[in-house]
Design a protein that fits this description.
- The chain is of the alpha+beta class.
- The protein has a single domain, classed as Cytochrome p450, CATH 1.10.630.10.
- Helix content is 44%, strand content 11%.
- The strands form four sheets. A five-stranded mixed sheet has the order 1-2-8-5-3. A three-stranded antiparallel sheet has the order 4-12-9. Strands 6-7 form a two-stranded antiparallel sheet.
- β1 and β2 form a beta hairpin.
- α14 packs across α17.
- The structure holds protoporphyrin IX containing FE.
- Protoporphyrin IX containing FE (HEM) binds next to α13 and α17.
């Protein structure tokens, strides 16, 4: 794969013509193609890394449509058209078949993939777990996970090469255990991480057979390799359900709601309908899958971006040192860094829908069955919407400038009724953990490692993110305190 790492950015600020400080290398991203891929190339790219399919035109044009092996395809990167699809006429769009096939084996029937009344009942049942008040109540638990990770790193020697993608995965899984799954995950956390990684890496590949619409019994080799991970999840989930039922029977109720008890007690207030066992299982996996890899990726990319932009790292360290407690409200720079990492490397890099009935998006006629793709990856790097789209500049998200960003030009958590239920939870968690890292450690890029974004359900660094650990105390970092 060709990585887009030009040695220099533009010499002058496009708007003001003012000479800029020497430009830094742009964060890694595939070079846009000059021309669209043919069928074989497209199938290959979709399977290996869908980011490789985008052409220069995708980064420039508001809407592109055409026919391909994927059927009628419309790529929408125009904020008001996105608003139309995700909000104003959301009822005309459902999750598309490819996405359902991709996530179906483990997550099918859970909140992420359900539709209609089933989705509504689940969303209503689980919403109480993600109110702003409860998210705030989870903050000490997130701080405890951050401390747990810091303690792991303190035990390592200065200068050691550590895979931070793995470390953040452990920490975000630990957060889930301390918050929405307080009765534990029913399995060894390391095994969980291995199983989740394996699941996304195998089941999460877009198989040519899926695109060509072959029936489910036709072999998907990647999907077969996901079988051991699914078997592991199955056993773990059974153990979790059993523990939750035992707790409920013995009257041992937690003082805050948790996911398992809400799932088991869930009955839709309007219909009285409860969730079936299969729905409970799918939701446990959904929340583990959607709630841990995504935030871990955001933290991994933020840490890498700071390692390659020392001026922002110093500003963030100064803010954290002055703030004392790890309280997101007093950490606007850390928050802006998380937001900018989510812009450049949105963990959910592509949202796709299928039109149910005919529609009109901007000037374009949409036929029933058309696949409408809204790609946060493209949108966040779109030339019409962002200045220096490929550059890392958390300043865009600082108060004063952040208000200039169109709500529908920045969609790390989606929008409309299917917006991420865990958005507030994830942002608080990412800020708390990143701040805890900044307070004590510095991470430098590992020599010889090529960083490459790859889309496998989530957008993650290919082959992890090895980094060199530096302890700020040892390296004489300013303002260190523990
Ligand atoms: C940085 C972290 C995260 C990112 C970038 C992210 C992104 C997203 C996006 C874009 C969607 C909408 C998908 C669509 O419209 O097709 C979504 C949905 C969802 N997310 Fe997240 N998410 C994150 C963290 C979390 C967390 C922490 C949880 C739970 C603990 C979670 C649970 C879910 C669920 C259950 C849905 C489905 C909601 C529905 O359809 O009603 N996510 N997420």
């Amino acid at each position: 794969m060709v990585l887009h790492m030009p040695p220099r950015g533009r010499e002058r600020d496009r708007a003001s013509g003012v000479p800029r400080r020497p430009a830094q290398p742009l964060p890694p991203a595939p070079t846009p193609r000059e021309r669209p891929l043919g069928t074989i190339g497209l199938l290959w790219a979709l399977r290996t890394n869908p980011l490789l399919t985008w052409t220069r035109a995708h980064y420039r044009e508001p809407i592109l449509s055409g026919r391909s092996v994927l059927g009628d395809l419309v790529i929408v990167s125009e904020p008001s058209a996105i608003r139309h699809v995700l909000v104003d006429n959301a009822a005309n769009y459902r999750k598309d078949d490819l996405q359902l096939r991709l996530l179906g084996p483990g997550l099918g029937g859970g909140l992420l993939t359900a539709e209609g009344d089933v989705w509504r009942a689940q969303r209503r049942a689980l919403a109480p777990l993600f109110t702003p008040r409860l998210t705030e109540r989870f903050r000490p638990a997130m701080q405890a996970s951050a401390e747990w990770l810091a303690e792991r790193l303190r035990r390592q020697r200065d200068g050691r090469r550590i895979d931070m993608a793995g470390e953040f995965s452990r920490a975000t899984l630990d957060v889930l255990e301390r918050t929405i799954f307080p009765q534990g995950l029913g399995g060894e956390p390391t095994k969980f991480i291995e199983a989740v990684t394996r699941y996304f890496d195998t089941a999460g590949r877009i198989e040519p057979f899926d695109i060509l619409g072959l029936p489910d019994w036709a072999p998907r080799f990647g999907r077969n390799r996901a079988a051991p991970a699914l078997a592991f999840f199955g056993e773990a989930v059974e153990a979790m359900i059993e523990t939750a039922r035992r707790n409920a029977a013995s009257g041992a109720t937690a003082n805050a709601p948790d996911l398992m008890s809400l799932l088991l007690a869930a009955a839709d207030p309007e219909t009285g309908r409860g969730l079936g066992d299969a729905e409970v299982r799918a939701n446990i996996l959904t929340f583990i899958g959607a709630g841990h890899e995504t935030t871990a990726n955001a933290l991994t990319w933020a840490t890498y971006l700071l390692a390659t932009h020392p001026e922002w790292r110093e500003r963030a360290e100064a803010e954290v040192d002055a703030a004392g407690a790890l309280d997101p409200e007093h950490l606007p720079i850390v928050r802006a860094i998380v937001d900018e990492a989510l812009r450049l490397y949105p963990p959910a890099a592509s949202l796709s829908r299928e039109a149910i009935g005919p529609d009109r998006v901007a000037d374009l006629r949409i036929r029933p069955g058309a696949r409408v793709v809204i790609s946060p990856w493209l949108l966040h790097r779109h030339e019409r919407l962002w200045r220096d789209p490929g550059a890392f500049d958390p300043g865009r998200f600082l108060p004063g400038r952040r208000e200039e960003i169109d709500r529908f030009a920045y969609l790390p958590f989606g929008a409309g009724p299917r917006i991420c239920i865990g958005a507030g939870f994830a942002l608080q968690e990412a800020v708390v953990i990143l701040a805890a890292m900044l307070r004590e450690f510095r991470f430098d890029p590992a020599p010889g490692h090529v960083v490459e974004p790859i889309q496998r359900v989530t957008l993650r660094p290919k082959n992890g993110m090895p980094m060199i650990l530096r302890k700020r105390q040892a390296s004489g970092g300013a303002g260190f305190f523990s």
